[in-house]
């Protein structure tokens, strides 16, 4: 460790104390690699400030010493955004000690939280106050509100409640020079110039450190109806989605799709899971309705699916009669990420398309990938209700680094060209991070890139906030 690094650590210690520093390599191990175990880095130190004031002091010091900062929340991101490079010169700023629920205001229907609050804890706090915070995703037991904001996270209820941008009213941010921007406003209307809040949401740690947020709350759902259906085609599932929306309106809170291969992977690799239907279907959907009180939700879903079966839109369906059955279905859906990691090496595509274009996209992409003659299996699943597919391609676990790189270049171009042709997005909910940085440059227009780089320059002229990610 050189003298500058030693000095930096001593200065950081004077700000956060021993409890706020992680210096031993073995204790840093879980911070310097990502959840997928795909990216690995090194850091001078991991610093864990206890509050916004300490965060501001840490950032001011890094600004003065030109030390690059990688902000990290729960480290569950899927695009390598929270993993440092391997220079050893960067510092991880972990928000995990900033975990207080600052206030719940049931009358304004808002909650103010520290950025390091774990998503599940935010949901619990809302529930304890008789309210509901609807963001929900497989990593909710570990991801943080700051990470959700920084990636503009989506998840399973976007079709009803929107993504994180739609769920946040105000932010508190430590800017790259250490000043604190207090934008913790709980307003539904505020047209006082450019929306700075929306710039920070989705900025992936590149414009500042989010330290607090005002979140929207909703009425608690006391009734749910959950079903699993099997269909022959994605076109049929899209038609079923449209019918469900028309019949159930805002009661439709989740419409998740899984191909036969995605389901088979979970059944093989995740313990205590079993096939919901007697006959495997090419495409499956997990559908959930919710309402503040039970005004015949189950009957509504039963009638809808009965009609769909009569019309040969759906082959088979399982309607849950209790919460245990529903939990078993959600376990299958949420087990896909883990099953994929166990089964192979992944080339991930987190794409968004107009729902009406999805069936044709998948048909064309599958044909093109088959023509590549790779030893590849398509694991296609995702949030059909909002048009977001995880169109992942899995190659054997034994593939070498070079083979993965080669297949990634080939498949990214093929899939992302087709997505672009169909007016879709190459980055729907996981962020750009380091995974899609080159793809972003390839697909964004020069004008959009120029404007984004000018915003970055205006906020972070020393380029210390998460270098090598996003832009
Ligand atoms: P991290 O991984 O720590 O960081 C992610 C990015 O945000 C990095 O660029 C980091 O620098 C930045 N960042 C973190 N905190 C801050 C902060 N306070 N200020 C500024 N920048 C910050 N995502 C979805 O959208 N939908 C899903 O359905 C979904 N399902 C998942 C399921 C599993 C099993 C897993 C492992 C992940 C899933 N994810 C999903 C991805 C991930 O959970 C989300 O991206 C989540 O929002 C990341 O939160 P985090 O606290 O772990 O952030
Ligand atoms: C999900 O929807 C997550 O389960 C993870 O966004 C997707 O593993 C993936 O590619
Ligand atoms: Zn997802």
UniProtKB/TrEMBL annotation:
The keyword Cytoplasm does not apply. One of its GO terms (molecular function) is catalytic activity. InterPro entries: FAD-bd_oxidored_4_C, FAD-bd_PCMH, FAD-bd_PCMH-like_sf, FAD-bd_PCMH_sub1, FAD-bd_PCMH_sub2, FAD-linked_Oxase-like_C, FAD-oxidored/transferase_4, Oxid_FAD_bind_N. Its cofactor is FAD. Residues 39-220 form the FAD-binding PCMH-type domain. The keyword Nucleotide-binding does not apply. It holds the Pfam family FAD_binding_4. GO terms for biological process: respiratory electron transport chain. Keywords: FAD, Flavoprotein. PANTHER family: BLL6224 PROTEIN, D-2-HYDROXYGLUTARATE DEHYDROGENASE, MITOCHONDRIAL. Belongs to the FAD-binding oxidoreductase/transferase type 4 family. This is Hydroxyacid dehydrogenase. It comes from Herbaspirillum aquaticum.
């Amino acid at each position: 460790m050189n003298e500058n690094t030693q000095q930096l650590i001593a200065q950081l210690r004077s700000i956060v104390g021993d409890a706020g520093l992680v210096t031993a390599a073995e204790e840093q191990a879980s911070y310097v690699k990502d959840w997928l175990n795909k990216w690995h880095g090194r850091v001078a130190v991991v610093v864990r400030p206890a509050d916004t004031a300490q965060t501001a002091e840490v950032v001011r010091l890094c600004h003065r010493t030109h030390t690059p900062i990688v902000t990290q929340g729960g480290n569950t991101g899927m695009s390598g955004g929270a993993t440092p490079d391997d220079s050893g010169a960067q510092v991880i700023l972990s928000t995990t000690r900033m975990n207080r629920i600052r206030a719940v205001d049931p009358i304004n229907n808002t909650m103010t939280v520290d950025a390091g609050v774990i998503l599940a804890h935010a949901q619990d706090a809302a529930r304890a106050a008789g309210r509901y915070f609807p963001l929900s995703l497989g990593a909710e037991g570990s991801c943080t509100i700051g990470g959700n904001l920084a990636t503009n996270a989506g998840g399973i209820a976007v079709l009803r409640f929107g993504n994180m941008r739609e769920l946040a009213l105000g932010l508190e941010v430590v800017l790259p020079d250490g000043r604190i921007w207090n934008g913790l406003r709980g307003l539904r209307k505020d047209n006082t110039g450019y929306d700075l809040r929306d710039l920070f949401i989705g900025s992936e740690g590149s414009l500042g450190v989010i330290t607090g947020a005002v979140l929207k709350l909703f009425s608690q759902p006391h009734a749910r109806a959950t079903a699993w259906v099997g269909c022959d085609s994605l076109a049929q599932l899209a038609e079923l989605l449209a019918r469900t929306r028309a019949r159930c309106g805002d009661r439709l809170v989740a419409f998740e799709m899984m191909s036969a291969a995605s389901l088979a992977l979970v059944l093989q690799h995740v313990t205590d899971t079993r096939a919901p239907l007697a006959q495997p279907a090419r495409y499956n959907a997990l559908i959930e309705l919710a309402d503040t009180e039970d005004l015949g939700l189950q009957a509504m879903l039963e009638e809808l699916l009965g009609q769909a079966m009569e019309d040969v839109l759906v082959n088979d369906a399982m309607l849950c009669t209790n919460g245990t059955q529903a939990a078993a279905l959600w376990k299958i859906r949420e087990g896909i990420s883990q099953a994929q990691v166990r089964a192979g090496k992944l080339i991930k595509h987190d794409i968004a398309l107009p729902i009406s274009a999805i069936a044709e996209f998948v048909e064309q992409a599958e044909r093109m990938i088959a023509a590549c003659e790779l030893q590849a299996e398509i694991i296609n699943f995702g949030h059909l209700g909002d048009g977001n597919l995880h169109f992942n391609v899995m190659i054997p676990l034994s593939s070498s680094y070079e083979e993965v790189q080669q297949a990634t270049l080939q498949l990214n171009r093929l899939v992302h060209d087709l997505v672009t042709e169909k007016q879709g997005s190459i980055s729907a909910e996981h962020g750009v991070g380091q995974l899609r940085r080159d793809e972003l440059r390839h697909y964004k227009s020069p004008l959009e890139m120029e404007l984004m780089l000018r915003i970055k320059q205006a906020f972070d002229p020393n380029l210390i906030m998460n270098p090598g990610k996003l832009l």
